[in-house]
Amino acid sequence: MPPGRSLLRQIFRRRARPAAVGCAAATVHQVCEALVPLAIGLAVDRAVDQPFLSAVVVAVVGVLLLFAVLAGSAAYGYWLLDVTCLREAHHLRVTSAETLMRVDDARPGRATGEWMAVLTSDARAASEVIRVVGLVVSASVGLLVSAVVLLGIDVLLGVGVLVVLPFLVVGMDRLGPWIERRSHARQQTGGLAAGAAAEFVAGMRPLRGFGGVPEAVRRYRGVSRQSLDASVGAASAGSVATAAGLLATGVLLVGTAAAGAAMAVNGRISIGELITVVAMASFLADPVRNIAAAVQQAAVSRASAARIEGIGGASGAGPASDAAPADADLVLIGAGAGTGSGTVGPIDLTVGAGEMVGVTAVDPRQSDAVAGLLDGSVTPVAGAVRWGGTELADLDRAAVRSRILAEPHAVHLLGGTLTEVLDTGRGTDPGTLAAALRAAQTADVVALPGAGAGADVGRLLDDAVQDHGTDLSGGQRQRVALARALAAEPPVLVLRDPLSAVDAVTEDAAAQGIRTLRAHPWFRTVVVTSSPLVLARCDRVVFVAADGAATVGTHADLRDRPDYAAAVLR
């Protein structure tokens, strides 16, 4: 099945009822519009044949009633289609964002800004397929009614229109694949440009620090130029489709009007019928234009749906097994992982009850690979990763994510107050939160009372914070994020450089706080870091050398190795 078709079918199944009702109302509107020329022609013939005021009044009232039905059905039908499209776009944004946050392999190598473009413009464009169907169905029925009316006036004239219309519609449809390719390229390059812009803005400080702004500008200009070229190409394709629709309607209008005028001169049709033919030819431009616009939008919707499927497709194949028990050991058996520049492993390691294991390497990518093996975000290329005796990859993803918390190095603080920022979403009680804040050494950020662990700390956390905690220092943001992770109390916690922006004294105290708080039979902790202070607090350390070979030992044992000392001592 071509990319995007499956998602479009799901959209129609979800919105079948409102889409059908809106489509029916839009069809009534088009039928009434198609009957307007006939009503006007009949009114003229009636006035000519029966020149009485009552006959004229009846004809005018009939036309007005037709317009009332026309306007009412149009208002309701197109309103319902608009609402349905907006609701579906919202649904696509929410479900896709949820998948992105839950499933690691749902985001294969795309930047955050690019995913933002997918969740906004692509979600809206994909939902527009509902309106496309309404346009096509209503326009097709309108054309059919027009052809029937013309057949009733003159068989030859009606047959001519019926023969020409399919060619026009098929010709419009032939433009669809070409427009789809151009639209896909435009959306793809636009997402890349948005992603590059987001990355450059986020990294502006380090770019200025090492003088990388000119190179960043050069790269952004490159992707921006590609986006511009693709947008121009897509706009050109859309213009061609619009021009083709106008040309087709113009030819149809001129041909039908000329044929009707010739028949009226020869006496084959009446004056009223001539008015109907000319007005009908003018009306035919509307449904043909609608079909041309629908073909163009359908191509855009298919391209957008294909990009959205890149998110949702990864979440469809869910494993059958539940997660391991909360107190189960996490075991690496000869496990290896690829880093892009080589392979890490094999690693034999058991993260036991209450243990705190450090991970460090010569190359940071190697450390990330080992951490990925432990949190399930990296598939082993050799060996196995087991939790509670079951392969980690065979466990239910949602259950694993609820029990293995992988806290990234990049800090994201969401909320307007400290209470909201520290919300774990797991119903953490105030005593647990207070203990986590103390362990993370946040006394300079959150003022905790000297009472016991069960104290109510909620009322002390109502201070406002700026968006993403920008009014806090880097070290303060790190410690608040660390406290939030500790307060969640996950059975397995994987931390990536959680204390890289704090001073040595605070770092040592926080490392001891992590070890003490997580020294529980239900907890297992992994810390990816190159800090000797943190590694010294770990029960064991996994060190990956430059060649990918992994060694497990204590910090005291490993520091005699020159490569380990060079990697961690400072």
Automatic annotation (TrEMBL):
Keyword ATP-binding among UniProt keywords: yes
Occurrences of domain ABC transporter (ranges): 325-569
Domain ABC transmembrane type-1: 20-297
InterPro entries, sorted: ABC1_TM_dom, ABC1_TM_sf, ABC_transporter-like_ATP-bd, ABC_transporter-like_CS, P-loop_NTPase, Type_1_exporter
Principal place of residence: membrane
Keyword field: ATP-binding, Membrane, Nucleotide-binding, Transmembrane, Transmembrane helix
The keyword tRNA processing is assigned to this record: no
Xref: PROSITE patterns: ABC_TM1F, ABC_TRANSPORTER_1, ABC_TRANSPORTER_2
Name used for this protein in its record: ABC transporter ATP-binding protein
Organism: Nakamurella flavida
TM region positions: 20-40, 52-81, 129-149, 155-172
